[in-house]
Amino acid sequence: MSAVKVLIVDDEQDFATALAERLRLRGYEATAIFSPDDALATTKEMQPDVVLLDLRLPGVSGIEMLMTMREFVPGVEIILLTGHLDLAQRIQGMRLDAFEYIMKPIEIADLINKIEKVGKHRDRT
Amino acid sequence: MKIRRKLFLAFTIYMVLALIPSLFAFREMDTLRKRLKPVEIAGDITNVFLNVRRQEKNFLLLKDQDSLQLLRKQIAMLKGNINDIETDIIRELGKQNYQSLRSALTKYEGIVQLLSDNFTLQHTAVNELTRLGRDIEKQLSERDLQTFLVLRRHEKNLIIHRDANAIEQFRSVYAPMRASAPAELSQYASIAERLYLLYYEEKSLDSEMRKYASDIQTLVESVLQGEREDIDNLLIMSMYLLLGALVTILTIGIIINTRLANSIVRPIRLLEKFTKRVATGDFSDPPVIEGSHEIAALAMALNQMASRLKDTVSSLELAIRNLHDKQEQLVEAEKLASLGRIAAGVAHEINNPLAIINEKAGLMQDILQLSDDFQHKEKFLAQIEGIVNSINRCRIITHRLLGFARRIEVTIEPFELNEAIRETVTFLQNDVLSKMVRIDLNLAGDMPEIRSDKIQLEQVFLNLIKNAIDAVAEGGLISISTSRRDDQSVQVSISDNGPGIPKDMIQHIFEPFFTTKERGKGTGLGLFVSHAILKKLGGKIQVQSESGRGTTFVLQIPVRLLPDQEAPQ
């Protein structure tokens, strides 16, 4: 079983790089990027298994980003990250199969659990 | 009594009372008018009597038949006048005096007749005396003639002077002649004697007639005088009667008017006072005005109006109070919404740097754990652990704040309250089992379906039951009951047998960031958020706590959260 590929998209550079490194220390193939433009290109190129996506990226609606990513990588699992709860966006996110949702600051154990679930999900499909 | 009838009655009484003295005065005037006639006649009588006296003088002077006739005519007229007002004269003089008047008149008339006869006899005697004298003169001798001429001179003296002296002288001259006197001479002398007698008689008749005339005059004048006095008295009486009538009318008028005015004005004053009081909002003591008159009807209408006004005012006041309450709720909701927005903004701003700290500290931990031992490795790890714990505390706080902000929005759906409570309890099963707590459910069977925000109410139940679980000792008891309060609201009470809340703290428990739990275990937001949710959903949360016996939270929840009760978003 190859390493699970995780793409972190967050404009908080410090957060994204630190989290990426912690995931890598735990054996994941984690990449962090900080701008939505890069995000789509990298997604297309990298074909990640899991995307950790901050819904509040400057200039882009998180929902649009989700839909585009789904086009580029069919079957990709998306976990939404946010410092802010937004009910409407959450519901829409659910309908798009963004079935997990994590509030910042993240508990690493919690995140690992979710990624593992996603991994198992992916293995079955 | 109706005012119109009252006025009419008063007016009628007034008129009748005024009419009575007026009628008396009228009758008095009428008597006066009737009495004027006799006065006039009495005046006439006086005048006629004066005429009688004038004719009497003429008669006595002229002694002829014409003047006698004129005198008789006047006397007849006087008698007629006296007959005309016989009753009045009797009233004035009395019966006796009237009789004496009549008899004086009759006697007067008789004397006039006697005088008239006397005058005729005188005339005849004088004529005969003159004729006999001339006859005798022719037959006498010179010597006898001289003596007889003396006698004739005395005869003339007698006719002119008519006194005793004249007849004495006549007699003295005649005496010597008597014995030898022829028949003619003695006849002449006897006629002279008779003439003297007639003269004497005339004198006494004359004086008698004057006496009667003066009697008649006195009586007639006293009749006139009496009549005049009567009229005068009548006039004075009428005057007093009129004066009395005037005073009576005035007095009665004033009394009737005053009483009438009082009876009309007094109730109006009462109404006026009440109206003024109503104007100041005092509806107490409505005036009681008995009777069936217009003012009583007015008072009744006014009282009805006042009581309706009172109802209207109180319903307006109620409406205003409701409006105030609504306004306060709106303001409260707006405050909550603002607070929510601020809380969310702060939480979000803090969450991002907190996330960075979290990842950096986490990375440090990771790296240290993978590293070989070095001098202060354990110390470093301990420090990092402290950082991570603090971050966790911060995270709980910011998540609660964000949760509070999200709960500002309300989603109404119909649901069963009992069901929601059961779900919440099920959700807490792990905590219940781990602490060996017993939860008693006393859920009422007749609970209505609720229309409210189910998720938020579940959040409240969750907070309260969790607090209760935290409060009780191991094996503690928590009882939850539901009941129907009225048609509009239901009640949920959650009790525990924990240590209770100290009295000095109970007033602060719904304030944000207030907690009795040990440091790091409570956020101080659970009850604050629950309170805010209940308030927003139109309900209430109350707490009863007794030190050492436990705490009970009582929730009142409206059955139906109407759209206008929802807080704005």
Query: For the report, how would you describe the main beta sheet of chain B?
Result: 5 strands, mixed
The termini of chain B sit apart by 69 Å
Order of helices and strands of chain B: HHHHHHHHHEHHEEHEEHHEE
Distance from N terminus to C terminus of chain A (CA atoms, Å) equals 14 Å
Walkthrough of the structure:
The complex is a heterodimer of chains A (125) and B (569). Chain A is of the alpha/beta class. In chain A, 49% of the residues lie in helices and 20% in strands. In chain A, strands 2-1-3-4-5 form a 5-stranded parallel beta sheet, with helices on both faces. In chain A, strand 4, helix 4 and strand 5 form a beta-alpha-beta unit. By secondary structure, chain B is an alpha+beta fold. Chain B is built from 14 helices and 7 strands. Chain B has a 5-stranded mixed beta sheet. A two-stranded antiparallel ribbon of chain B has the order 1-3. The longest helix of chain B is centred in the middle third of the chain and has 97 residues. The radius of gyration of chain B is 74 Å and the shape is rod-shaped. The chains are: A alpha/beta (125), B alpha+beta (569).
How would the blueprint of this fold be written?
The complex is a heterodimer of chains A (125) and B (569).
Chain A: E1 5-9, H1 13-25, E2 29-33, H2 36-46, E3 50-54, H3 62-72, E4 77-82, H4 87-95, E5 100-103, H5 108-124
Parallel strand pairs in A: 1-2, 1-3, 3-4, 4-5
Chain B: H1 3-62, H2 65-84, H3 86-93, H4 95-139, H5 142-161, H6 164-178, H7 183-279, H8 294-370, H9 377-406, E1 413-415, H10 417-427, H11 429-435, E2 438-442, E3 450-452, H12 454-471, E4 477-484, E5 489-496, H13 503-506, H14 526-536, E6 540-546, E7 550-558
Parallel strand pairs in B: 2-4
Antiparallel strand pairs in B: 1-3, 4-5, 5-7, 6-7
